[in-house]
Amino acid sequence: PRYFYFTRHGQSEYNLLGKIGGDSGLSANGSEYAKRLALFAKDSICTDAAGQPRPSRLWTSTMNRTKDTAAWIEHPTIQATYEDGSKEKHDWIQMRPMARRNLDELYAGTCDGMTYKEIEEVFPEEFKARQEDKLAYRYPRGESYMDVILRLEPLAHEMERTREPILIIGHQGILRILYAYFMGMKRKEAPYVSIPLNHVLKLTPHAYGCHEDRVCLMT
Ligand code: F6P
Questions:
Q1: What's the rounded Cα separation, in Å, for the pair 173 and 192?
Q2: Which one of 4, 135, 147, 149 is separated from 79 by 20 to 30 angstroms, measured CA to CA?
Q3: The organism sits in which domain of life (predicted)?
Q4: Complex confidence, ipTM
């Protein structure tokens, strides 16, 4: 079976301050999550039910907070054997982190680095416009959820073609779109999907959508 594992990065310095966007590092709490995620990856993603190493992939964005969240995940070399018995010609480097620009968080342009309260005070019209149509609203000099849907499309297709389980360490906005796509949700609903910090979402695709399991690694 194919699985997708989605997680947001561990809590960042900006998350603590309530600021959006930026490229801050992890808080102490976020670093703790990174360590717990590494254990989860080792036990539950990189190993199959029989305890054998299983080829798996690890994708992050190009931002510090996702790369730092991946930092503790081991990437040993294994000899890959697939369920059909075929062996890889070459050894497989397990979970080597791959930083993907498409996975970078929705860019808030002029509002990058502000809190929602600051945006409401400084740009009240913008704040109102976003509330009225969160899907189509584009930040000044930034992106909309619609823009993000377009840039994630090739990546979603690549995910569908990949036969190994993939762990994506991403961002709230990005994971909302990927989640909505694989769960077969309406676009309008995507910007409101709940993707909490400190959880791993495991999606198992089936004929018409996905089965979902949520694992909380930290409260
Ligand atoms: O607050 C974390 C964050 O990832 C921001 O960087 C981003 O702008 C925001 O979430 C996206 O959520 P929303 O679309 O609800 O503002």
A1: 9
A2: 4
A3: Eukaryota
A4: 0.98
